[in-house]
# Entry
Amino acid sequence: MRILKITSFLLCLLGIAAHAQDFTIQSPSRSIQLQIRNGEQITYQLFCKKKVVIQPSTLGIEFAKPRILLNSFSVIKVDTSSVAQQWSPVWGEVSSIRNQYREIALTLQDKKGTSTIVKIVFRVFNDGIGFRYEFPNQPSLQHFIVKEEHSQFVVAGNHKTFWIPGDFDSNEYPYNTTRLSEIDALTAATKEPDIAVKSLIGINAVQTPLLMKSDDGLYINLHEAALINYPAMHLLLDKERYTFTSQLTPDAVGNKAYLQTPCKTPWRTIVVSDRAADLLNSKLILNLNEPTAMKTTDWIKPQKFVGMWWEMHVGKANWDLASGKHGANTANVKKYIDFAARYHFDGVLVEGWNQGWEDWFGNWKENVFDFITPYPDYDVNALTAYAKEKGVRLIMHHETSGSATNYERWMDPAFQFMVLHNMNSVKTGYVGRIIPRGEHHDGQWMVNHYQRVVEKAASYKIMIDAHEPVHSTGLHRTYPNWLASEAARGSEFNNAPALGITPEHTTILPFTRLMGGPMDFTPGLFHFKLNQFEPSRKTEVRTTLAKQLALYVTMYSPLQMAADLPENYEKHLDAFQFIVDVPVDWSDTKILEAEPGDYITIARKAKQTGDWFLGAITDENSRVAEWSLDFLSAGKKYEAIIYRDADNSDWQTNPEAYLIEKKIVTGKSKLKIKLAKSGGCAIQIKQVN
# Structure
């Protein structure tokens, strides 16, 4: 990055106008404009194509020790820079990413006599902004405790909002769609008994990523990037002023963060566009994360896998041996290995393989699991050899039951055990109350724990899939072995007795949770009434089979599970072929149409073969969609294999009805497809030689 001495001429070249202590900064395309004013307090204001996104909003941060409120400053220095570069992710939705922004960094001194120095850095992209607080080395401030961060986001109206309740321990809520003025987090949470741990913040508290749509057509996402050594940010809403204020996750004694200079906070991000599709194309959050420092990454491989995870959710099996239905036994796992090998899947996830599941949940015990001792009916050595013979790897499962301190003691032996048994991927879990006692899933201690785990895993060349973690903030750029996280309501909630997974849920997640990074949603369910093994169950999957296929394209992850049971796939092997064929690593992505809460259609180009795959999903309403295939290479012919809802398909009455059709298409072709209620369409497009 080039740092330039500030002059009026250079500011003009950078699209920055300075008048006294007012600054106006434009994005490289001039579509985004940021105004900063330093008066009694420092404020910022944001515009997109001359429409107001954020009204004047104050910035500040407060310490508990030393007792300082930093919200009134003198500007003592201004640094500016501009960046335009390309970089290639190890894996992702595209093979090359443009990182282009203009930056202004204001070095500020507290005006109230403490002489404390803080730098506020703004980066202005063509699709939004990021800002953060930085604390340089200084004699009067070395170690300090953050009491609260006072970053405001004053929006310009009573926007339509897609939100979940603020909760320091769980983000597995269904989304609510209301006006800002109608947000009531406590009422929403009490309607949802499926979440075991609740640490609710307040009646008007919400989580990020938060999506809003203004009446004048702007789509606005509020979130954070590069969450390192700091608690996760939630938002408190003042309904009367349409003002969100940052609310950091506290620790066991109420403090928010313990820091030592030099240090910096995560970026606060605002992604904005007048096209919903542009939000899904945004790489702003990823660009605000640091490049990886890993010397080699060739061992990091996106993958598809199967496993007996769904058996436990539908009552066919259980995690613990004492239940009499232990799923992770040698014979059963061999069946999954055979199935994975037959259809060229990379791995088999085994849950419930290790002793301790009889006493794992809710007891707040330190050492339920040791992560190396299998149940007596699970021959890990024989299964390792059998999987290797079949060209498949076992995927480890480390459920910590919330005892993060115990897991840290066992990480080295656990990862050594994995390497010994030819395993290179692990699904971690943090169900329950966190040990050390009083810490939250989203607090600074746990944020640092997740980082310690991914760094330790990297030293053993192991990839991570984290469940029940803090929300994702683009750290997969820095740690590309962090393939995916859950961090939202995933497919397992199809078996929840209350709200479950609503038809619109997967049309919202790409605009919210997935803005921070890939999600292990676990799609691919083919059996929809979930009373297959327990007839008294009333739960069901609220989609069609074709929509389940489409989710492999619309719900991006480099780690995808074929979540259902082999016997359910064997009834529909022609449809299962799409799951076999769809890749998990892409060279290009096109958002063909999108409207949060209603529908999404995405086309992606496979990195290895160059084939295109298209996924389209809709909410509870049926619709007729029409898409141009102009993303295909001109002058070439392709075969489109179309997996679509049958004419009589309906998620409530006929979810398993689908049709498979083939047709020749070109870049001039248009496809017109009817999607059923909570339906979908999945298409593979292969070049014809």
About this structure: The chain has three domains: 8-287, 298-487, 495-689. The chain has a mean pLDDT of 95. Residues 404-420 form the longest helix (17 residues). DSSP finds 13 helices and 38 strands in the chain.
